[in-house]
């Protein structure tokens, strides 16, 4: 009998419907922006569950769906539930990272981790790399640890374990590979991994344990992937491995929106799909449902300046709308003022703030808009910038919480052992580090082990012992008090809150408010485990109220999103296209910048406004700026130019005379006065550097931690025996020579000529 077609299929055009209904076999949906690729994926998920659950006993657990951000995953979850009229649970929906983390926790032991392994953020990574370089005596000034981190990340993106790296890079005179190896070993000892490891370890796991891979290959009957053009090699290998048995893999993407090659993404993955999966069906979508014809035409024309595209036609039924505005302004402040005024005008017309976005090329650009919007009282959110959980006091507090939940978290321990000050100095930490390395145990474990020896000064033993005792008590508290109470107690009794209460720093009150806010946030979770998981994976949704807000974000982070009104500031040579992209990657870099511009324009539904300033202050210096070449590449018939650069004329390269050589010399009076600061919003100098990265690093900076169920604790300690015996004459690095009186594991009681009898560990006996 004919079953009626489900309602959700009615909202699709013929090609989309074809893509949704072709459930079996490999399928590639290759289509431009706004053609409904993501909608196809969502509907396909609903359709799978609707049609196959009964007939073929398809369980949600047999579906694997990959999105580019956690936010996108959440949205997909909601959309599918809406289409089906019921919630769906148990399926594997998330980013490559979150899915890999979930998988690894189940099999951690097989690759030498415990299931509660910590996922390091990039600060932790750098700190660890510094330690390693220090031990290897590599000059950190000449070879910055951050650079090494980048190199290692690229290798991981390519799926290369240290053994498989066969390229030699200049870093540390070719030593990077060796450092990478040590780094991986240290991570294992610390029961930790970094973001790149999540995928890399999965690949290793699949390789070394085919039976595990087999299990997943059999499980995942249907695989769906959004934003396929931005997968890197490791992700590609991961997917291909998963899809091998059932081969029901559906990937959607757009080669013109590949914007993450600097993070190792390979647009080749999408180009190769048909040869990877012979017999694959390819569906092209050409109708755009998002934007007005002017927006679409402007973006389409711009992207034709790139070579080697697959090429796509886009059309729309929408037949009205503004042209794309291109506005020249005097400087950054004028740009912020102009955009602020435009936003106010939109709001007066009843446009909701959530339908407005300012999309910047680099994070440092956000500050000026933030200040302007604050001044105007327009609520906004910065997506992808330094956020609540990245503030110093929050990270400190999180380290305390991590250490409660995870007794062997070395990096958390190191972060807070002397915060507030407990007199634990560099020398003590060095002793702990050396012992932890020597015994292959965590730092807290090393501290515990050395407490009953005289390797640590009595004062140290007292303060560290006190702290460790406190942690033990706090952990025990978890058994009979709420986790919120425990956190409050921890922050109080550790002296951390007091540290800020008595601080004279101007921002101390704000920090105390933040700590309070943190405690309320924790109250929204059942336990510390779920809270810490939240902090790590859902940070990009750091919204806790539902007020409508203007969104400020980088172009990279805006991928896949749409807004009625989009502002695209800073379209100047050097800013966008970004200088570094052009310097480092030449034409390729420029083309990626152009794709980024394409992504930017195509985020707009009703109106896109592009701005460029004639002057910019960069690192405290005023510079004149040229409009971006992308401005030039836009088709005149679809744009409306205006200019108020203070230079006369009507702006743009299209108005002869407007940008004459003489005009560029006409700098404002305060600009020549190089020493003093003009009385306008200062663009802060060096501080901006930390914003200069865009979307990806923001994501990576997340702090992913997983912990055991509350209250459960485990200690790793060494159980070594000593190579020394009673009667041996030895030299200790601090106490000089003496005679061994007693041996207890690796602990020795030695009678020293200078200081009498002491209990020490044999790690610190000098050789020979
Ligand atoms: P991007 O390349 O930017 O990720 P996309 O191809 O994933 O875009 P979607 O975000 O799925 O496109 O769709 C763009 C917009 O068009 C959305 O608002 C979506 O709801 C709408 N849309 C898609 N298909 C249809 C359709 N058949 N009828 C009406 N609206 C549609
Ligand atoms: Mg999409």
TrEMBL record:
Its EC number is 5.6.2.4. Residues 713-724 have a biased composition (Low complexity). Residues 671-682 have a biased composition (Polar residues). Residues 698-711 have a biased composition (Basic and acidic residues). ATP binds at residues 31-38. Residues 293-560 form the UvrD-like helicase C-terminal domain. Belongs to the helicase family. UvrD subfamily. This is DNA 3'-5' helicase.
């Amino acid at each position: 009998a004919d079953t009626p077609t489900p309602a959700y299929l009615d909202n699709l055009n013929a090609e989309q419907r074809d893509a949704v209904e072709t459930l079996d076999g490999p399928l590639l949906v290759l289509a431009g922006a706004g053609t409904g690729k993501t909608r196809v994926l969502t509907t396909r998920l609903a359709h799978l569950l609707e049609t196959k659950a009964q007939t073929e006993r398809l369980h949600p657990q047999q579906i694997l769906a990959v999105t580019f951000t956690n936010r996108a995953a959440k949205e997909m979850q909601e959309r599918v539930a809406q289409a089906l009229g019921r919630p769906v649970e148990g399926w594997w929906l998330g980013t490559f990272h979150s899915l890999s983390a979930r998988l690894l926790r189940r099999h951690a032991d097989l690759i030498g981790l415990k299931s509660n392994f910590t996922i390091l953020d990039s600060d932790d990574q750098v700190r660890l790399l510094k330690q390693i370089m220090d031990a290897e005596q590599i000059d950190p000034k000449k070879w910055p640890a951050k650079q090494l981190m980048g190199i290692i990340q690229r290798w991981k993106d390519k799926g290369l374990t240290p053994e498989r790296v066969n390229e030699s890079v200049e870093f540390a005179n070719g030593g990077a590979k060796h450092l990478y190896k040590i780094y991986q070993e240290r991570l294992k000892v610390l029961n930790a991994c970094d973001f790149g490891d999540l995928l890399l370890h999965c690949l290793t796991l699949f390789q070394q344990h085919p039976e595990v891979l087999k299990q997943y290959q059999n499980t995942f009957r249907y695989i769906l992937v959004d934003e396929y053009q931005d997968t890197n090699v490791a992700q590609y290998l991961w997917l291909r491995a998963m899809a091998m048995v059932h081969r029901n893999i559906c990937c959607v993407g757009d080669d013109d929106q590949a914007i993450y090659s600097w993070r190792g993404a390979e647009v080749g993955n999408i180009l190769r799909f048909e040869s990877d999966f012979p017999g694959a069906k390819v569906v092209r979508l050409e109708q755009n449902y998002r934007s007005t014809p002017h927006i679409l035409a402007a973006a389409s024309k711009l992207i034709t300046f790139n070579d080697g595209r697959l090429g796509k036609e886009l059309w729309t039924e929408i037949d009205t709308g503004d042209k794309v505005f291109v506005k020249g302004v005097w400087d950054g402040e004028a740009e912020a003022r102009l955009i602020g005024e435009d936003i106010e005008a939109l709001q007066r017309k009843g446009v909701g703030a959530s339908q407005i976005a300012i999309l910047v090329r680099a994070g440092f650009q956000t500050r000026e808009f933030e200040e302007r919007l604050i001044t105007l009282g327009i609520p906004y959110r910065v997506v992808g910038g330094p956020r609540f959980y990245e503030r110093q006091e929050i990270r400190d507090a999180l380290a305390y919480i991590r250490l409660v939940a995870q007794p062997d978290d070395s990096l958390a321990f190191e972060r807070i052992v002397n915060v507030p000050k407990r007199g634990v100095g560099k020398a003590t930490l060095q002793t702990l580090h050396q012992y932890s390395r020597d015994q292959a145990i965590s730092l807290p474990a090393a501290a515990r082990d050395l407490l009953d020896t005289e390797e640590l000064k009595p004062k140290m033993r007292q303060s560290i012992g006190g702290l460790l005792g406190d942690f033990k008590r706090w952990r025990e508290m978890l058994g009979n008090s709420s986790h919120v109470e425990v956190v409050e107690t921890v922050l109080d009794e550790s002296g951390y809150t007091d540290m800020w209460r008595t601080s004279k720093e101007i921002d101390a009150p704000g920090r105390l408010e933040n700590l309070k806010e943190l405690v309320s946030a924790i109250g929204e979770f059942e336990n510390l485990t779920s809270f810490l998981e939240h902090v790590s994976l859902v940070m990009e949704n750091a919204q806790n109220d539902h007020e409508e807000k203007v969104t400020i974000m980088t172009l990279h982070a805006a991928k896949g999103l749409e807004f009625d009104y989009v502002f695209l500031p800073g379209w100047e040579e050097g800013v966008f296209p970004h200088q570094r992209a052009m310097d480092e990657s030449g034409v390729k870099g420029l083309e990626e910048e152009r794709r980024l511009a394409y992504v930017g324009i195509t985020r707009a539904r009703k109106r896109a406004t592009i701005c460029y300033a004639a002057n910019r202050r960069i690192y405290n210096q005023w510079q004149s700026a040229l409009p971006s070449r992308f401005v030039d590449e836009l088709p005149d018939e679809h744009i409306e130019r205006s200019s108020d650069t203070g230079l006369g004329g009507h702006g743009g390269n299209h108005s002869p005379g407007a940008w004459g050589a003489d005009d560029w010399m006409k700098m404002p009076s305060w600009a020549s006065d190089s020493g003093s600061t003009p009385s306008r919003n200062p663009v802060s100098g060096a501080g901006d550097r930390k914003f200069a990265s865009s979307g990806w690093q923001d994501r990576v900076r997340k702090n992913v931690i997983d912990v055991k169920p509350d209250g459960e604790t485990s200690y790793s300690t060494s159980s070594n025996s000593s190579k020394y015996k009673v009667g041996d004459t030895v030299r200790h690095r601090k106490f000089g020579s003496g005679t061994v009186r007693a041996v207890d594991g690796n602990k020795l009681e030695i009678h020293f000529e200078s200081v009498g009898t002491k209990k020490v560990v044999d790690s610190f006996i000098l050789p020979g």
